[in-house]
Design a protein that fits this description.
The structure is a single chain. The protein is of the alpha+beta class. The chain contains one helix and ten strands. β4 and β5 form a beta hairpin. About 5% of the residues have low confidence.
Length: about 210
Amino acid sequence: MTRVQRRIAMNALTYLRTYLPVCSLLLVWQPFHARAQQNSDASRVTLKRAPTERDGQHDFDFEIGTWKTHLRRLVHPLTNSTNWVEYEGTTVVRRVWNGKANLVELEADGSGGHFEGLNLRLYNPQSHQWSLNFANSNDGALTQPTVGELKDGHGEFFDQETLNGRAIFVRFVISDVTLNSCRFEQSFSDDGGKTWELNWVAIDTRVKNESR
């Protein structure tokens, strides 16, 4: 072997001793880095998919107390009638089960005569929804409950019932909520929810200087 050949061989050996370990480390590092990146991405996805469930069991706490109620009621809903009657009365709301339920009692008088009604509201902690169960003293029976949620001072509750032998949808809306006033509306639909006819409007104003 000539002097030049020996020099080339020695240079090649030096190259292998220097760079082969570095290449091996790179080969080991790249899969490890890729797995770490995948785990990090998976953690971020998991966090995004697990939002905190909203607890609404105290949604109606604002209403506990005594209220003056002005009520308007459409006498014959879904008949093209425009005959409304009005009442003035008092609503008392009491907390039940530490806020997981409440009982609303309304007594009013007006052009439609004397009216007494109650509403038992029940909170479902699994669905995070409320059911509103209404009854009046004329028949002493609870109606089909409307079910929904109350968030940020606005709530919508729905159910399906029958009126004059026809299946209808019922929508109950709570709006304009403040510490001293709120609004309640009920509407019916006999076309699958395409259009709604308003048949009940109640404006409540808190009785001043009462202890809640």
